[in-house]
Design goal:
The chain has 222 residues and is of the alpha+beta class. 39% of the residues lie in helices and 19% in strands. The chain has 7 helices and 5 strands. A 5-stranded antiparallel sheet has the order 2-1-5-4-3. α5 crosses α7. It is globular.
């Protein structure tokens, strides 16, 4: 583990004594994507424990090198597995400009939402169902959390596959290539076991996944 990350572990313990039990503080070592979570307080919010993987949002930040232009991401939207709203904050931890970790704060707004809905019922306040809801996500990938890296890849895969009418077994080679390219762009293959998981999801060989990846990476280099 990077020595800078080790120093942040004590901060997780420190801040956990300050915030309420509706605020999760999570520290990630990004050099081990499959088991990145090295410290966490109030893990009941996301259901994660030490050893959990990076989620889809973190993978996207790394793949797109967001940390090169941002030291932190403030006040964006997240969601728990049971769809409770979160307000999220991420501090990028760098060593000589390279990303080594992330310190994340996730505030559970579910109780606030329930209280507001209760008061609206009490005072018979109506809302326009067609009125757009403002989201403080800064254009970022919405935070969702998984217990292991296979679940993270599965979530990414389901987001991609829904755009295709045919079941996986009837996808054409070009469609499978497109899917792998999108998964690659979203960081699915930052996991060491990513190729094997995607091969199983697409019902193809790992060799085929590597071949499609080579094509995708070749496009990116042009």
């Amino acid at each position: 583990m990077n020595k800078i990350i080790k120093e942040y572990i004590s901060l997780v313990d420190f801040f956990s004594n300050i915030v309420g039990n509706n605020t999760e503080i999570a520290l990630h070592d990004v050099t081990d994507a499959e088991h990145s979570l090295v410290a966490i307080s109030n893990g009941h919010i996301s259901g994660r424990e030490v050893g959990a993987p990076l989620n889809g949002a973190a993978l996207l930040y790394i793949k797109n090198r967001v940390y090169e232009t941002h030291d932190q991401l403030i006040d964006y939207r997240g969601e728990t597995k049971d769809h409770r709203p979160l307000t999220c904050y991420t501090k990028f931890i760098k060593d000589d400009g390279e990303l080594v970790g992330m310190l994340c704060v996730n505030i559970d707004r579910g109780a606030e939402k329930e209280a507001i809905e209760h008061l609206m019922k009490v005072f018979n306040i109506k809302t326009d169902e067609n009125e757009p809801v403002e989201q403080a996500d800064n254009g970022n990938f919405k935070e969702r959390f998984s217990g292991n890296y296979k679940e993270t890849i599965q979530e990414l895969f389901e987001k991609v596959i829904r755009h295709y009418d045919a079941p996986v077994t009837r996808l054409t080679p070009s469609e499978k290539e497109e899917i792998i390219e999108v998964l690659n762009d979203n960081g699915a293959f930052l996991f060491k076991g990513g190729v094997a998981v995607v091969a199983e999801l697409l019902s193809i060989s790992e060799a085929s996944v590597y071949r499609y990846l080579q094509k995708a990476n070749g496009k990116g280099e042009k």
